[in-house]
Amino acid sequence: MSGIRVLELGNYIAAPTAGRLLADFGADVIKVERPAGGDELRRWRLVDGDTSLLYRTINRGKRSVTVDLRSDVGRKIALELAAQCDVVLENFRPGTLERWGLGPDDLKAVKPDIVLVRISAYGQNGPYRDRPGFGAIAEAVGGLRELTGDADRLPARTGVSLADSVAGLYAVIGAVMCLLRKEGGTVDVALHEAVFSLTESLLPDYEAFGVRRERLGGRMEGVAPSNAYACADGTVIIAGNGDSIFRRFMGVIGRPDLADDPLLASNDGRWARRDELDFAIGQWTRQHDIAFVLNALEDAGVPAGRIYQASDIARDPQYRARGMVQRFDVPGLDSPVGFPGVVPRIDDETAEIRSLGPDLGAHTREVLGGLLDFTADQIDGLYAEEVL
């Protein structure tokens, strides 16, 4: 993406995730933030200092500029910056950019082939267009929340901002497609649609056969055996649901009778007897520690893994070998901190993170002076007027 310049007007996670991905691969991403406080993500999960490591992660590789987009002068600056950019990212409620005089027509007037990427809760049209919404709501409306957790409890949420992150991925796909056709365009990503796209055959199965998926805890509908199993010293995940894998798996746990049972030769039969299989597997895993279980299954070619915590990722040799934990000095901390690496690897190389998310307004003078030819006195005056 070297040579591509991006103007990010987003807040929180969705649009900034798209900006992060573009920056990871070389795009010059200029993040516009409010002069007072900046992106609210700066204070989410804040442990110390004035900028959270969540912000540093999501906004890595970017330049931060403070501009009051609600002011006439701020609007003019934003349009001047857009004229120098290939892509504009935003995740405000529909109509917000238009009210600020920064809508699609305004942007195209200064850059006819601009790519405008818009992320919102429900998209830019439809009866829900004006409803507010965050990722948690999108996971519910998108059909995922009903599938997550145990059947006898309220639906659970994954431990990350899944809807926002997936929407950010789709936003990048849309931006790159528009850049490839070299005509500009508008990309419209709805959070709930991004989530819905992950639900596989949820809707087709219902409409064709009346199947209503339910929460299954650690299991996956129609797939067996695949679950979490208790060992003597912890828990492992084992996915022994392939036909040939299942036979090898049953050999490892000493159950050739199950391996040779013709009713268990296919996944349908195994799903029907999932409780019996999970009981047999659990009997074996509880007799051994995690290391023994994983070694035995690896030797037999059965997919299995330890449930990692952050400490496991930090010292794991596979992450290290592929450059997926990259360490940086963080202001106020005595030792380097590990951050997630860049995905995907290209040509057998992992891209290096250029910088962590910047301090608020760290590049305002650099960007306005370098791209828009503002003088130092002009910039000082805008600071005095609280436009910057």
UniProtKB/TrEMBL annotation:
<dbReference type="InterPro" id="IPR003673">
    <property type="entry name" value="CoA-Trfase_fam_III"/>
</dbReference>
<dbReference type="InterPro" id="IPR050483">
    <property type="entry name" value="CoA-transferase_III_domain"/>
</dbReference>
<protein>
    <submittedName>
        <fullName>CaiB/BaiF CoA transferase family protein</fullName>
    </submittedName>
</protein>
<dbReference type="InterPro" id="IPR023606">
    <property type="entry name" value="CoA-Trfase_III_dom_1_sf"/>
</dbReference>
<dbReference type="Pfam" id="PF02515">
    <property type="entry name" value="CoA_transf_3"/>
</dbReference>
<keyword id="KW-0808">Transferase</keyword>
<dbReference type="InterPro" id="IPR044855">
    <property type="entry name" value="CoA-Trfase_III_dom3_sf"/>
</dbReference>
<dbReference type="GO" id="GO:0016740">
    <property type="term" value="F:transferase activity"/>
</dbReference>
